[in-house]
UniProtKB/TrEMBL annotation:
One of its GO terms (molecular function) is DNA binding. It comes from Lentzea flaviverrucosa. Keywords: DNA-binding. This is DNA-binding transcriptional regulator, ArsR family. It comes from the Bacteria. Gene3D superfamilies: Winged helix-like DNA-binding domain superfamily/Winged helix DNA-binding domain. Residues 3-97 form the HTH arsR-type domain. The keyword Membrane does not apply. GO terms for biological process: response to cadmium ion; response to lead ion. InterPro entries: ArsR-like_HTH, HTH_ArsR_DNA-bd_dom, HTH_Metal-responsive_Reg, WH-like_DNA-bd_sf, WH_DNA-bd_sf.
């Protein structure tokens, strides 16, 4: 059973990952299945090193897992629940009216 502290830590990691637009784009791209850094870079119009750095962060947050296939690394969402959660979050965000950016003071 997850403790309150464990839940807070998990939400903080998710929040850190979602706080960056590039990481959000990568997560959304991975909703359709696994991806490779070079393929994600091309699809998203980013440099491979940029994508690799963000994938490293997402891996550190526990949101994606890496599978080594020879010299290539395949990335995918770490858990099927995460796919459903991200999809639901996108639906919630789309339902909220646009307004001023949320900024810490």
């Amino acid at each position: 059973m997850l403790t309150c502290e464990t839940r807070e830590t998990a939400l903080a990691r998710l929040g850190r990952a979602l706080a960056d637009p590039t990481r959000c784009r990568i997560l959304i791209a991975l909703l359709d299945g696994h991806g490779y850094p070079a393929q994600l870079a091309e699809t998203l119009g980013l440099s491979r090193s940029n994508v690799s750095n963000h994938l490293s962060c997402l891996r550190g947050c526990g949101l994606v897992v890496a599978t080594y296939q020879g010299r290539q690394v395949r990335y995918e969402l770490a858990d099927p629940h995460l796919k459903r959660a991200i999809s639901e979050l996108v639906d919630v965000v789309l339902a909220v009216e646009p307004g001023p950016d949320c900024v810490d003071e």
